[in-house]
Structures are given as structure tokens and as C-alpha cells.
Amino acid sequence: MDTKLFRLAFLLMASQLLAICASAQIYMTKTGQTSFFSETPLENISAVNQQVAVLLSSASGEIAVRMQHTAFRFPNKLMQEHYNENYMETAKYPAASFTGKFSEHIDYGKDGTYPVSAEGVLDIHGVKQKRVLKGQLQIDHGQCILTCEFDVRLSDHNIQVPTLVIAKIAESISIKNKFVLTPKKNS
Amino acid sequence: MRKTTSALIFSLITSVAVAQTDLMKELEQADDSTVHYAAATFKGTRIINGHSVETVGKNNMDFIISHRFGAINSGAGNFFGLDESQIRLALEYGLTDRLMVGLGRSSYQKTIDVFVKYRLLRQSSGLRNMPVSVTLFASDAHNSSTSTPDLPFYTITQRQTYTFQALIARKFNEKLSLQLTPTVMHRNLAEKPLDANNVYALGVGGRYKLTKRTSFNAEYWYTPKTIGGTTQRDPQYTNTLSLGFDIETGGHVFQLHLTNSRGMIEKQFLGQTTGKWSNGDIFYGFNVARTFSFDKSKKRSNSNGY
Q1: pLDDT tens for each residue of B27-86
Q2: What whole-number distance in Å separates Cα of residue A159 and Cα of residue B26?
Q3: Which of residues 211 through 230 in chain B touch A, CB cutoff 8 A?
Q4: Cβ–Cβ contacts within 10 Å for residue A6, how many?
Q5: Domains of chain A, CATH where assigned
Q6: Model ipTM value
Q7: Which of A86, A97, A165 sits opposite B212 (nearest CB)?
């Protein structure tokens, strides 16, 4: 009796673990690319960050994105300095992040391109905003390539622009993301 | 039976633990595996008269206009010093993000100066911990004024003064940065009988940010009267104390200050400061730095300067 019950429990546990291993694949990257672009008649400003960290859980559809502001590269060192010192206040708020969950169910085992939307929280400059971000997820031989474009209004995140340069910085900044995610080993 | 229970509990715990894997926590933990460099220890390449650890960025050029007006105690007839001024104009260029060169001309003694500055160490935290930034500085100042009986020059070599500095700074927090600047200066011609050819000095400077774009700066250059029994400077010359404000707007840095030195380069503010704060020999002055970018990708975005 005892052994039978034990066997049953063991089987249950094993099957549970197997199920978790099969479905709970974590995809990740540390070299995701995020760029932003500010366009005004006076001046265009762009910067790119190639060290964006992303984790995606295929089981739950949860996604987490995090980037350091200091990793954004500008064509001009002075701009980079002002971005961190004056606008993003990097010492206080070192990173921007997004945590969300895909609303679509994706079959990660099947190659193809799927439109996705993720509902979650966008945290920039210490101000959290509920956002639904739309993008595309391409499954290619076990790799997930996630692309996404969206706009961020500076006023939504309490990013202040002095009147002297207000004509040089757009009110709404367009942001482009490309993350190539690979299965995380020994997770 | 106990085994069974424990196995069941264990199986439950594993599933719960996996479900709760906090993806963001995992990403946050990875922060320590990158190097965080301290940026903008100072707003400009000068604290006031002396250099700061900062250098001009790659392919950027600073045009610096510096003025020191006459002494505030020179009376209403001289409009409290504003009637006259000493000027230095300079072009300073960043060859890389760590190496820069500069060329300037001061109206005082018609002096042309060239310098090179290299960022040796950058203050950082995270993966690599470096408590201070260190920048090396070397300059040559060429006195191009006409040879006179008071100050005769027989060779070009005599006109040169060399300065070597190690600029050591730490950004303690967002607001406070301090810098120590050990300095050796060699002048080929000692202009006064009591002047030594070699002068050893120590600069102490710092800034305290008042707002995001303004800071209060102070700087003191200490030159011991004697080193190893040798007098360093003619007693008429004094140590330089300067107080000022930095105001930054986009590509400009305005530095407004009060100082007892009218010289704006090392040779002059270390060895030829005659003013005394206690006598009211205070000079109002400013440095205006305008940065121009010569980056190709910058041109594509259709703008010059920032």
C-alpha cells in the first residue's frame, strides 16, 4: 500500500517536472538592440543601446526587458553626457525596463512569424506606465526574434526639457527594439 | 507514508518555485556584471583656471574664450576693472574619447600654449572598481613678447615653460566632485632673480552642483615658498584662489568666476599671480566653451554643433 502510494506520488512528481522542463523554456539575450530617435526641424537625435537584457518565458508568455541608460551610444559624447546627467538622471534611475505578458498563445516549436502584443509596465525615469506594446515574434529554428516599435512621450515619464532647447527635442520619442533570443541553458 | 507526503510536498514546491521565477529580478542581478563609469565629474575641461580630468569627446572641438577683467579695486574710473581685460582664445580637439590636444593664445606676455591631455584611468564601479579618475597633462607655453632690457630673450628655448600634471579626481556623488593636481613646472628662463627654474605645486579643486545645469566651483593652487631650501617664487607672487559658477546649456558651458590671478594658463597662474584677495585685487572673469562636433554620422543628421 505504502509503496504503491509512493510510486504514484513519484510518477506524479516526475511527470510534473517533465512537463515543466518541456514547456518552461526560458529564452534570453544580453545583446538586444534598442534605439531611439527624436526628430525636430532643428535637430535629429539618435542613440543605440546594444546591451539590452531580455528574458522570455515560453510557458507563461512573460517577458522582461531591462537596459542601462549609460549603455546608449550617441554620435556625440556631450549629448550622451547630457542624456544621462540632465534628462534621464541616470544616477537616480540607472535603468529602463518593461515587464509584461503576451496575450497570444505562441507555439514555440513551430517556425513562423506571429504578431504579438504584450500588456505590462514600462518603467522609464522612475515613472511606471501601463502600456500595451505591439510587435512581431519570429520563431526560427529555436530562436525567437522579437521586434517592436513604440513611442514614448517625455511628459508621460516626467522627463523635463529646459525651454532653451525645447525646439531641439521632440515631445514624443520613437523607440525601436530588436531582440534575438536563444534558449537559456541549464535553467 | 511519511516518504509519500514529503515527495508530494516536494513536487508541489518545485512547481510553485518555477512558476514564481521572477524574470526581472534575474535581470537586475546581472547589473553587477557590467562596468559603470562615472560620467561628467566636471562640466567643463577646466575647474576654473586649471584643467579638470574631463577631456573633449572624439571628433569634437571646443572653442574657448576666456576673459579676466581688471581688478575690482581699481576704482570707478576704471569701471571696477571692466575697462580692461586679459584674453585667452583656444581651440581644443578630441582625437579620441581619452586623448585631446589644445592650442591657445593669451594676451598676457603674448603667450602661445600647446597641450596634450590623456585620460589614464576612469572612475568606475560594478565589475571593475576604480575609486578615482586620473588624467595626465603636459603643456608648453611660449612667451612671444618682444625681447626687452627688463626681460631679454636670447634664444627660443628661453621662451618656453613646460608643465606636467597628474589630475586625480573623484566624483563622490551626483553633486560633489573633488580633484587634486600635483604639478611640476619647468621654466627655461626664470624671469625674476628669486624665481626658481623648477616649481612644484599642488592644486585642490572641486565642484558642488546646485541644480542639474549649474554648479559652484572652487580652486586653490598651493606653491610652497621653498622646496629643499630653494625659494620657488619671487615673494611678490602669491597663490591663486578662485571661486565661480558653471552654467551649462546644450553645447555651451559658461564659467563665471572671481580670482586673484589674471593668467589663465599654468605658467601664469602658478608663477605670476600678483593679486591678493585680502587687498581686493580680485578679477572678475569668464570662460565660455562652445563645442562643435565633426562626427560624420552627426552631419548626416543635419546639424552642426549641439
Answers
A1: 888 777 778 888 899 999 999 999 999 999 999 999 999 999 999 998 898 899 899 999
A2: 27
A3: 212-213
A4: 17
A5: 24-183 (2.40.128.110)
A6: 0.75
A7: A86
Per the structure, how many domains does chain B have? 1
Of A6, A44, A63, the CB nearest to B302: A44
Nearest by CB to residue B24, choosing from A6, A64, A68, is: A64
Which triple of cell numbers denotes residue A12? 506524479
Asked if the structure places residue B32 within a domain, the reply is no
CA–CA dist B97, A50 (Å, integer): 19
Taking an 8 Å cut-off on Cβ atoms, the answer to whether B291 and A20 are in contact is: no
CA distances from A139 to A86, A109, A117, A176, B180 (A): 40, 8, 15, 19, 56
B303 touches chain A (CB under 8 A): yes
List C-alpha distances in Å: B289 to A40, B66, B127, B248. 25, 9, 34, 10
Identify which of A6, A17, A91 has the shortest CB distance to residue B4: A6
Residue B5: inside a domain, yes or no?
A: no
A32 beta partners? A52
pLDDT tens track for A130-177: 999 999 999 998 899 999 999 999 999 999 988 888 888 999 999 999
For B234, the domain range is: 38-300
- The three-class DSSP label of residue A132 is strand
Using alpha carbons, list the distances in angstroms from residue B71 to A6, A181, B41, B84. 95, 66, 31, 9
Question: What CATH number does the domain containing B57 carry?
Answer: 2.40.160.40
pTM higher than 0.95, yes or no?
Answer: no
Establish if B116 belongs to a structural domain: yes
Closest CA–CA distance from residue B60 to any residue of chain A (Å) = 8
Interface of B with A in 75-94 (CB under 8 A): 94
Residue B277 to residue B204: CA distance in whole angstroms: 17
Q: How many CB pairs under 8 A join A and B?
A: 123
Q: Does some domain include residue B245?
A: yes
Cell of A8: 504514484
Residue A178 main-chain phi, psi, to 5 deg: -140, 115
**Phi, psi angle pair for B22, to nearest 5°:** -90, 105
Q: B212, A44: Cβ pair inside 8 Å?
A: no
